[in-house]
Fold:
Amino acid sequence: MSNEPIDCEECQEQVHEYLQREVNEDIAAAITAHLANCDHCEEMYNTEDQLNQVIRNACQTEAPEELIAKIRKHIAEIG
Ligand SMILES: [Zn+2]
Structure:
């Protein structure tokens, strides 16, 4: 079976690559399934997603370093 469920630790290790679309399909499917069933990892994912958007926006406008620092701190706290 390639579609084995993953645990929280594994999910959190891969979530960054998942957001960057850098994981293979099997892992992406496993993470998607895990996020649907795990509020903790879903929050982690949402926070990472938010951070990525801030970074993307920062490329176009002024870098909101304070906000990035705040989100990084939040990730550290829930991780
Ligand atoms: Zn989890």
Remarks:
- The chain has four helices and no strands.
- The mean pLDDT is 87.
- Helices lie at 8-19, 25-37, 39-60, 65-78.
- Residues 8, 11, 34, 38, 40-41 surround zinc ion (CB under 6 Å).
